[in-house]
Amino acid sequence: MPNTDYQNIIQQLYEQIQSEENFGEVATYIPELSKVNPDYFGIHLTTIDKREFGAGDHLTKFSIQSISKVLSLSIAYELLGDAIWERVDVEPSGTAFNSLLQLESDYGIPRNPFINAGAMVICDMLLSHFKHPDQELLQYIHDITGNSDIQYNPLLAASEKKIGYRNFALCYYLKSFDNIENRPEDVLDFYFKMCSLEMTCQELSHVFLFLADENFLNQHHKPVITLSKAKRINAIMQTCGFYDESGEFSFRVGLPGKSGVGGGIIALHPDKYCIAVWSPKLNAKGNSYKGMKFLEMFTTSVESSIF
Amino acid sequence: MPNTDYQNIIQQLYEQIQSEENFGEVATYIPELSKVNPDYFGIHLTTIDKREFGAGDHLTKFSIQSISKVLSLSIAYELLGDAIWERVDVEPSGTAFNSLLQLESDYGIPRNPFINAGAMVICDMLLSHFKHPDQELLQYIHDITGNSDIQYNPLLAASEKKIGYRNFALCYYLKSFDNIENRPEDVLDFYFKMCSLEMTCQELSHVFLFLADENFLNQHHKPVITLSKAKRINAIMQTCGFYDESGEFSFRVGLPGKSGVGGGIIALHPDKYCIAVWSPKLNAKGNSYKGMKFLEMFTTSVESSIF
Amino acid sequence: MPNTDYQNIIQQLYEQIQSEENFGEVATYIPELSKVNPDYFGIHLTTIDKREFGAGDHLTKFSIQSISKVLSLSIAYELLGDAIWERVDVEPSGTAFNSLLQLESDYGIPRNPFINAGAMVICDMLLSHFKHPDQELLQYIHDITGNSDIQYNPLLAASEKKIGYRNFALCYYLKSFDNIENRPEDVLDFYFKMCSLEMTCQELSHVFLFLADENFLNQHHKPVITLSKAKRINAIMQTCGFYDESGEFSFRVGLPGKSGVGGGIIALHPDKYCIAVWSPKLNAKGNSYKGMKFLEMFTTSVESSIF
Amino acid sequence: MPNTDYQNIIQQLYEQIQSEENFGEVATYIPELSKVNPDYFGIHLTTIDKREFGAGDHLTKFSIQSISKVLSLSIAYELLGDAIWERVDVEPSGTAFNSLLQLESDYGIPRNPFINAGAMVICDMLLSHFKHPDQELLQYIHDITGNSDIQYNPLLAASEKKIGYRNFALCYYLKSFDNIENRPEDVLDFYFKMCSLEMTCQELSHVFLFLADENFLNQHHKPVITLSKAKRINAIMQTCGFYDESGEFSFRVGLPGKSGVGGGIIALHPDKYCIAVWSPKLNAKGNSYKGMKFLEMFTTSVESSIF
Questions:
Q1: In A153, C192, C258, D271, which residue has its Cα 20 to 30 A from C169's Cα atom?
Q2: Final residue of a domain: which of C163, C195, C227?
Q3: Do B176 and C184 lie within an 8 Å CB cutoff?
Q4: D176 and A166 in contact by Cβ < 8 A?
Q5: Is the pLDDT assigned to residue A2 strictly greater than 60?
Q6: Same domain (yes/no): D222, D149
Q7: Do the domain assignments include residue D220?
Q8: How far does the CA of residue A200 sit from the closest CA of chain B (Å)?
Q9: Which residues in chain A have Cβ-Cβ distances shorter than 8 Å to D99?
């Protein structure tokens, strides 16, 4: 497919969606996030041969939130191997992102590493392994992209921690099932910091390219993850990346992907490209309204999904 | 990939798995099914260019059970379009195949068309539309393959109906939410008949090839389903095809697929092939123990999944 | 307490409540029941020394519905003894009267004999024991009161059966757990018939006096139930008689009692009296709005509860 | 009933139960509690006319644990009136004492003040009202009995806090629903302190006599609580005092009561007596094995329950 197609399709869909009503709502439960201009809308696609296509606010930083959970999982999986699946499962949850319900019947084993509880267990693993997991995570990202502009937003992390009572409940609950090794406060500090990562759509599509490109090498000319592990992370994104809208995303878009409450979404077509979209207003299931719409129209237009 | 590779890999994995212990158990709750020889093990792969590769008992008929739900869905989706999604969702359930739990909180809308409740709603749609949906379904299959050997097993259908109290409960429950139009007895008659379809692994891999091959034409030289709908059915298989082991299958095998309690599994690689495996002993989640094992080792060996 | 007090208090509260707005709603899911004049309001109290006090429509027949479940339990308990508790528990359910949720986690053992599922299991026991349990139940009532005017309403039973899909679901679900011995259709026939019993408030207060009066003898000069069993049935009414409003009734009224969806309520003060109230409009939890109000004000006025 | 009867019955049942096998298990999840000698067994009954009857280890101190929740409720109810019911319900929960399940569906309103979540909300109310709620609670108890030997066990409180992760989870979860006003850490400090109260069976039967005796006056010759409020607390004990064994206790014993994980139980017969039993080994539902057995046999022997 020639360059111009991607650019034309992205630009055209961007304009079409901009002209339509946005039925989403900005998440208000994180005060800092609710201050973001709700009209932002950006798209950026990077192919595995490094061609790039962007539209709208694709160069503006925003809070990637839960999208960061794919990165912590990648580090933990490469580092600790299949042992991690003894403490977290790979099944879609069928419930909301912060539900405590299933943990009770599942004896403290989170359904997957992308719901909050599962991401906390992964954070706990990294905390047991690294002295400064936050610095290691940042280094990991910088090593992938060579772009040291990517940083945490400590104000946002503090803002989330201050009102994150349900996340405290989740983490103490996991601890009560012996599925957290470290102090819950320390796990949550790292968890909130990780979620406060800020990137542009362009940066996101660069960072996650390693999951689409099986020959990807980082700045030190090393593979980021083995092919088999990358495929499995993609599989988990496919079934669990969008909370209780994961089936819907798979159905409409047909790509593995991951959303964040800041309105960002990444999706990737193995062997082809990684795409990031961002628009802060969310649908009822907590995923970017315009982002979901764009990606559905995009894969329909390019007639290309993994199915 | 040359022919010989598929055949060698299939034969080799067949022999390896045959030599290992089978930790599965035959489902006992359907008396007729429990009479099947538990040692059967067959595999058959058909590529979209009609090359075929088989091993073991791939030419022996067995009860395809829930695999049939993909066929009823295909007919209903092509016939009625996206209107069907008003009565059944496309989300993984996170619970067992015959759970009534979620129906209560979801107000009678089944999570997806592959759990029992969802399949009953689809059966109800076909019952409202066709005078003899069972004959239409059989015709549909015969039109796809040109093989009129594929038939129902009325004894098995009667056996399941006789002890299918939980399915009666599910269907009356759906009716109480106004999500069944016809008489529950009639819906169940069709449902049990559909599940009693018998095929060989070879026949299964022929029947479902239309979901892998976008240029597939049936015996009347007509497409079975539009490309866009086929992709969406594949997406639902990917997230919901294996009950509460759907994530695990996606993670380990990386293909869309569907299992049945008779021990059969189909899986397909879009644009490449459709594969069917069969071994009656099931793992704890109700999916063929050897079948799951084979498919994981197979996609690892051929280094090819959709991710 | 002299006669006049009860009569004055009942009359006064009757008038006060009649003058206030009725915020209840008539149950509409049973067509026959929804035809009843919603303005009926009657009260009748009978003391263990056979003094009687009534007000309003206390001599008008109505459908006692679930109140009948106390009678089937009494027969089964006296007949079969503590063996019945192997198939039904005595715990409050914490959920709605027709919930299927708990049955799944409780492996088919209903929480108590007053939720629909529990009453069906009791009906099944009587069906296994009697050739014509419906006739036995009627005889039991006639023997208690000597009043053969008390009868079933076959039209109402038929009306409920016709739309009772959720009850069919419950009964088949119980059958799937092997907790129903007979054919679900037969169990439901008896269940719906039992619920269609019609009585006046006066008749109700006569029928249930045997649970308040430890020296009660029926028309054949025989005790209806042993004292120890009567106390235990009262205990179950106290904790489970009002579905998920049982705690509220215990808290506000302080007497063992049982409600029906027809708007009737019986309550009894051991060693003192049995009282029946009736008003068809129900509160959000499915219990008579005026009935609950009257009983709370009544036990407050007479300063007498079991606590 | 003459004095001798109570003493004989208590002594006789004590000896009988001592001679039988104890099928209970000491709770191990609180390290300090698991150190208690499991063979202790004591009973003490105090009548409203101040006659006393004891047997076994009725003068040995033990940790009253959740029995203390009746005291905090009494203070809060008398102080704040029916406003407290806006933040906690009076319904039996149908689930275990520390379940988070229902809080999710009930939007953070605990089912009743005796499950952990409900008791925390009551603690939070007292914390908002008093500068030193722990001192107020102790003063309240000393005022009732004139016995200043009753104290907290700070070591036990610390022990529970150290491993009370699930209680931390519950409290943060309530906070996330805005049903905790103070800092969760402070609420839990008071909660654990309250649960660490130590009393003998004799002291317990003295302290709770005010709920059985409507003319009870404390050391300052003042009523502890209004009659109407006492009756309602008794009603809540009747339906909710024994977690998911509340129905069973009501059924077998027929008195309002409250158990603690330390193996203590209080029960009371309005207008007659308050009885306390203690034996550390618990049944599967978390209530004293011997205590439950004794109380069932006791109310059967004296032929006296509220029903």
A1: C258
A2: C195
A3: no
A4: yes
A5: no
A6: no
A7: yes
A8: 25
A9: 104
Same domain, A80 and A144: yes
Q: Are A58 and A202 in contact (CB under 8 A)?
A: yes
Chain D residues touching C90 at Cβ < 8 A = 247-248, 250-251
Check: complex ipTM more than 0.85 = yes
Residue B98's pLDDT is what? 61
Chains that touch A (3 or more CB pairs under 8 A): B, D
A66, A119 in Cβ contact below 8 A? yes
Count H helices, E strands: chain B? Answer: 13, 9
Shortest Cα distance, chain D CAs vs residue A95, angstroms? 12
Taking 60 as the threshold, does the pLDDT of residue C97 lie above it? no
**Residue A59 lies in domain:** 3-65+197-301
For residue D166, list chain A residues with Cβ-Cβ distance below 8 A. Answer: 172-173, 176
D100 in the same domain as D47: no
- What's the DSSP call for residue D212? T
- Minimal CA–CA distance to C283: which of C16, C103, C21? C21
Residue numbers in C near D305 (CB within 8 A): 231, 235
Residues of C with CB under 8 A from a CB of B: 99-101, 103-104, 165-166, 168-170, 172-173, 175-176, 184
SS3 assignment, position B275: strand
For the stretch B155-186, what's the b/e string if a residue is b when 16 or more beta carbons lie within 10 angstroms of its beta carbon?
ebbebbbeebbbbbbbbbbbbbbebbebebee
Considering CB atoms only, which of C234, C245, C251 is closest to D236?
C251
Asked if B158 and B279 sit in the same domain, the reply is: no
Contact B289, B283 (CB under 8 A): yes
The answer to the question of residue B141 being in a domain is: yes
Question: CB distance C176–B170 less than 8 Å?
Answer: no
Q: What residues of A are in the D interface, CB distance below 8 Å?
A: 99-101, 104, 165-166, 168-170, 172-173, 175-176, 184
Residue D113: its chain C contacts at CB < 8 A?
none
Cα(A246)–Cα(A252) distance, integer angstroms: 10
| A131 and A165 belong to one structural domain | yes
Number of folded domains that form chain C:
2
Minimal CA separation from D266 to chain C, in Å: 15
Among chain C residues, the shortest Cα distance to B178 is held by C165
Examine the residue annotation and report whether B191 is marked as an active-site residue of this protein: yes
D227-240 helix and D68-80 helix, angle to the nearest 10 degrees: 140
pLDDT-based confidence at residue A224 (cuts at 50, 70, 90): very high
**Shared domain check, C120 and C191:** yes
Same domain, C85 and C188: yes
Do D125 and D181 fall into the same domain? Answer: yes
Among A115-124, C75-84, D24-33, D173-182, name the one with the lowest average pLDDT.
D24-33
- Give me the CATH number covering residue A215: 3.40.710.10
Question: What is the pTM for the complete model shown?
Answer: 0.93
Output phi, psi for A43, to 5 deg.
Answer: -140, 140
8 Å CB contact of B169 and C166: no
Nearest to C233 by CA among C257, C217, C263, C253: C257
Residue C307 falls within a domain, yes or no?
no
- Residue A108: inside a domain: yes
Residue ending a domain, among A161, A195, A229, is A195
Residue with tokens 């590769």: B53
From the candidates B168, B174, B182, B183, which should be mutated to test the interface with C, based on the most C CB atoms within 10 A? B168
CA-derived radius of gyration, chain C? 18
In DSSP terms, C172 is beta-bridged to none
